[in-house]
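Sequence decides. Our protein:
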Amino acid sequence: MICLSAFKAMRSLVSIALVQLVCIAALWGQLEPAVVPDQPSAGLNYLGKYDVIHANLPDQANNRYEWVTLQAIVRRNGTVESATATRGPKELFAQAQEIELRRRFKPFEKDGRPVRASIEDTVQIVPLEQWGTKQPFPRVSNWDSLRFTLNRPPWYCEDCPAYSVEVWGDGRVLFHGIHPAVIAGDYQGAISHDQVSALLNSFRQADYFSLRDKYVLSAFDLDTVKTSMTVDGQTKKVVDYGGLEVGMPEAVHAVEGAMDEAVITTFRSMGLSQQAELLQTALNRRHY
């Protein structure tokens, strides 16, 4: 009994010590000075979904407000510790700060090592979402008829991706790279049936057949993204040219991202990790 009591006491002491170490580590993370990294651009380090604010602001037609600017502290692991809105419409400050706190970044570096970073970031303000006529999403009767496409034509950005890709219901992935600075040439690979089903679900969740055919901003020097889905003789196409700024639902970007991910997954399954990383880096630049 004495030994058992002593063991329980020691276990309690060890638990307390571990808790203390965790608290000290967390406190050190808070006390470590936040520095301006070597590459402070949020866009080059941004990972994951790019959330925006949909709002109907009186001055939006005059492009007076397009962004909420924030000062953020990013931990060494790329998560956001704090975010303070500094410029933009004040009624959207709280929403912008919530979005910033959900963002994830590739760790920022100073002199070649990850640091707790102080950065300036922005959250874009766009019009309310605009939809076409509501249409039922088709059921797949013949998987061999299923075909998804994405096309990113070349534009003025020298380091941005330009390519087309087809994903078929049997898992075939056909890639044609156009931009020599990123990836050029033809590649053919495959993804699993489960991955094709997940891609189909991305289009379903986007209510793809209820979108408008075009979301085109009257502007120059923007990148165009064209997607399509064909199944059992039905085809739907969507053109995105600065679409968010004319009411395009964010679901379109989710579909585009799912197609990009299918390509990256294919490259990795083929052992082409360099191509996968080049494409991922180029896609990250498109956020800013």
